[in-house]
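CORE FACILITY INTAKE
Project code: CF-77B
Contact: R.S. (postdoc)
Sample description: multi-component assembly, two entities in total
Requested service: structural model of the whole complex
Turnaround: standard
Below are the sequence entries exactly as provided by the requester. Do not edit them.
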Amino acid sequence: MKYLEGRKYVIQAIFIAIGAVYLIKLFYIQVLDSSYKTAAESNAMRRVVQYPFRGLVYDRHGTLLVENTPVYDLMVVPKEARAIDTLKFCQLVGMTLPEYREKITAAKKYSYVKPSPFLQRLTNAEFAAIQDNLVDFPGFYINARTVRSYPHSSLAHALGYIGEISPRQLEDSSYHGYRQGDYLGISGIEREYEKYLMGKRGVKYTMVNVRGIEKGSFKDGAYDTLSEAGQNLVTTIDLKLQEYGEKLMSGGKVGSIVAIEPQTGEILALVSAPYFDPSLLTGKELGNNYMKLLRDPAKPLFNRPLMATYPPGSIFKLAQALIAMQEGVLTPETGYACNWSLVKCSHRHPYASNLYIAIEHSCNPYFYQVFRSVVNRGKYRNVYEDARQGLDNWNKHIKTFGFASSLDIDLPGEKKGMMPNANFYDRIYKRDGWKYPTIYSVSIGQGETGVTPLQMANFAATIANRGFYYKPHIVRSVGENGKPLPEYLVKNYTSVDPMYFPPVVDGMQLVVDKGTGRNASLKHIGVTVCGKTGTVQNPHGKDHSVFIAFAPKENPKIAIAVYVENAGGGAIAAAPMASLMIEKYLTDTVKTTHRKRWEADMISGGFYKWSD
Amino acid sequence: MRTSYKIANNIDWVTIGLYLLMVTLGWMNIYAAVYNPEHVTSIFDFTLNSGKQLAWIGTSLVIIIMLFAIDYKAYDSLAYGIYWFVILVLLGTLLLASPIKGSRSWLVITESVRLQPAEFAKFATALAVSKFMSNINLRQQNWKDQAKLAGLTLLPPIIIVLQNETGSALVFAAFTLAFFREGMSPLILIIGAVAVFVFVLTLLIPQWYLAGIITVLMGAYLWLNFHRIKRYLPTYIGMWAVILAVVFSVTYFIDNVLQEHQQNRIKVLVDPEIDPLGVGWNVTQSKIAIGSGGFFGKGFLEGTQTKFDFVPEQSTDFIFCTVGEEHGWLGSLVIIALFMALLTRIIHVAERQRSVFGRTYGYCVASIIFFHFLVNVGMTIGLAPVVGIPLPFFSYGGSSLWSFTILLFILLAIDAHRKLDLGRG
């Protein structure tokens, strides 16, 4: 081992070599290169962050939805603002001396040498008055920034808003690169697409002397970087349709309208009512307005299409029929009596001798028996076990329709909703404590089911496509000529074979032609609408009105779900609204005086007087 | 014999002198870093980092006395016990601690007293590694033993990386120097050096150009010397392939594996324009502070750049800026000379140990201190990436001062008894 002892010299040589290299480098920057001294002597290199333009947001036809307008902030560097005439300054900006002291203390608390905002969002008049006299007050300067503004007061929930970064986010390493006072997307598209919209901030180093006067750029701008504007977004929204939907849901109605283009999964309209003007959450009054909206008992900030989960009601019968056919326990020709001893039906109607008639009249006992045949398969001798297995098998199918899981829309806050399985009922009733009669209300979309309006619209799109859907999304492309994300080009098939869809589609046509959804007919413009009504029992008050539809029957252009809380039966509010939306989207106007009267009734809430 | 043995005669007072000098200078520089000319406070003020550091120094002296009081054989016999205990604490911190600035590595004792167990993993690993190397049944060529040693060395840094303290984890690379002294092939050091060299080249030159240049140079060399080296052709082609693999994997690694702020810390070495808002700003300000010191410096407490917020973390990771600004190149020379003196003295102490355990441990101590010096001073002058690790004995911080004190004084305690340790080696 003796030979290894020589290695101590190698190791010490490495130590000494590094020490020598460092001393040489230090000699270079400390003694030979004088540029660091000049930088330090002028004793302030001011780093001015250049904020880029945040990306703009357009609708599907290129109409501007979100833009930027400039505002001015008065900034202060406490270290440089020591020797000013405070009284004169207070007069200039119009504040009292204690106010001034409070603000300057707050600024010092953040940093003695870094700039912090002193007065934010000056009006143009204030800006003009201050700007001219600022030379007398070293340490203060104006920083121009932009805030969001909205040419149309629509789509507030989906657009979202931007706000100042929170102290908690500043501590979080995933927000690396943001600084105090920076703005970022808090909700909606602004949050989801933050990294595209924000752009890249630039930075300019200027040398400032003790009196705060600029002495040129540091090292001739060698370290400066230019800011890059954020990327623009083209959304899938049809602004006219969106505005029309909001008009229909105006006047304190509560609910959602979601319209989707089935061939692409693009969201055409996303109405959450009650809604608010997006410009409330921008500018000086953001804080106050936000608190007002937050305290409003109607919860206008709640983004209902994505966050509210309701029992779907009778529209769910369509899914029951599809799954039963796939499982081979139902054919379009199967007939069941409208047996009120099983479950009450909504009204008296002819014998449901086949599936089409059952859908047309939304026969509750019929679908009681359909779901029972799916759950009770007679494969196990134990009836409890048989129901458990049957329900779990059904649950697998229903999930492929996008229920009970997030559809992964490109907006924050989407809820999953729920569909029961055997474990779920085991927890409530204990194992072997429940069988079909316990859970039958699921057959007609009541009971332990929860579906968001977005999932309902996606369900309509899935039927319109005869068996598959594209992920619903609200941004078509990043940049004006961008392409949709690859995940939005994937067809998501349900576990039900496409060959079982046409009978259901035919049933939906009957609903609108002569069944429960006659109020949604668009015969006067020659369009065949396929739809399904739903009336959701509500223990807290009047029933919720639901309608899903797509049109035209062949080659559908629009699929829609309308959910109006406490409006009564599906035929009353939701069906007419859906047909008005479809008519508006397909033809751009609403024709005939009869339809115009309906439109007025929908907007004014006159339908509340229509009786069930 | 035991009773007549006087420890004091055998304590290495040179090292202790260097230690006290460095700790005192560190304390004064911490005061200079937090000194505010408009609001003068005493160096003893406990609300300032300097006052707190004095408390840390005082407790360190108590620790030193305890380390000498403990039976010196305990360090040898308890080495594995200490190691596994620290591993448990590391895991506990990882799982239980609430994150502070994105890192799950702090044990909060009171609001102002926090300990970072990762700091203590260094001496614990050094002890365990030395113990392993001193095993007389150890065969260095045996791959099983090599794997065990590698496992012992890599386990702590893996946990530390999971705590999101990549800087502290990198320190464990320093152990290769100690292994080298104990017989590891020099090839590994050379390969490491070449890898770092190629790594830096990859940052400077686009990867396809670099690959082309390497291929041409290699081809020319082979063609000119073909007859002489014909027999080793496969070796050379293997080398060529390995270098190219490094070139391409570096780009992949930087762009796909590292988090964005880590990427920037590396890229900023060759291009200060990257991330001018974050790490680029820090390095520029740090260089301005040091560079403005000139030959003699501005004088104690006279610095203008290292006060307030111009340089970040003035009293911890960027403490060297204060030295550079207030004491100029001469001050830098003194600090660097002190480190060189300490490191060579530790090597001297290590070499006079009769046991493999003592010698290996000595080399571990030297390597760890050297690595901290290399990276910490390097980053303040733009020669090393910005990795948040402290300058031993100078940076503010209890965990770091305690852990370096323990690291160094275990060696001195073993050394004080070296003459009792007969017949091993």
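Facility notes:
- Chain B has a mean pLDDT of 84.
- The two ends of chain B are 21 Å apart (CA to CA).
Invoice: internal transfer
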